[in-house]
Amino acid sequence: MNIMLFHSTYGLTPAVRQAADRLRAAGHEVWTPDLFAGRTFDSVEEGMAFKDETGKDELLRRAVLAAAPYSERGLVYAGFSFGASVAQTLALGDDKARGLLLLHGTSDIAPGAQADELPVQLHVAEPDPFETDDWLSAWYLQMGRTGADVEIYRYAGAGHLYTDPDLPDYDAEAAEATWRVALGFLDSLG
């Protein structure tokens, strides 16, 4: 698979590069665009401030420019937290998208969005302060209305970005379970 993997508000950190390497080792071609132009952050708050300062439209523009040269190949869009919201937006706007892998995050769904039978897999902590139960229920119903084929995996007791070994949220057991299921999902798309 050809995978466009977007980073969280921490920026393009070593953990994102390690995740991309893990996907490459499983036989996938992976791109990791740096939407923050080399900036990384030590806290969610710093990253969110930079994201807000840069602006959603500008960050989406950067993401579209990064994905455009490869979209004809049929991309799987993937991302971590904020990057998952970017991936979701791009996947729902790309009729050649092959799949959507969301790690730790979702996004609003544009009215009238269509994703006919797009395979979507979401992995989130339970509970997750950024992805509450009410939000996820509404998101799931809305994604279903787009025509997407959605699977949700919840990991009890894990922190928000539990796949990042450099953060306090890290949960080795949940991270390994996530990667096992996600790699199976990606294999199923081939």
Automatic annotation (TrEMBL):
<keyword id="KW-0378">Hydrolase</keyword>
<dbReference type="GO" id="GO:0016787">
    <property type="term" value="F:hydrolase activity"/>
</dbReference>
<dbReference type="InterPro" id="IPR029058">
    <property type="entry name" value="AB_hydrolase_fold"/>
</dbReference>
<protein>
    <submittedName>
        <fullName>Dienelactone hydrolase family protein</fullName>
        <ecNumber>3.1.-.-</ecNumber>
    </submittedName>
</protein>
<feature type="domain" description="Dienelactone hydrolase">
    <location>
        <begin position="3"/>
        <end position="187"/>
    </location>
</feature>
<dbReference type="InterPro" id="IPR051049">
    <property type="entry name" value="Dienelactone_hydrolase-like"/>
</dbReference>
<dbReference type="Pfam" id="PF01738">
    <property type="entry name" value="DLH"/>
</dbReference>
<dbReference type="InterPro" id="IPR002925">
    <property type="entry name" value="Dienelactn_hydro"/>
</dbReference>
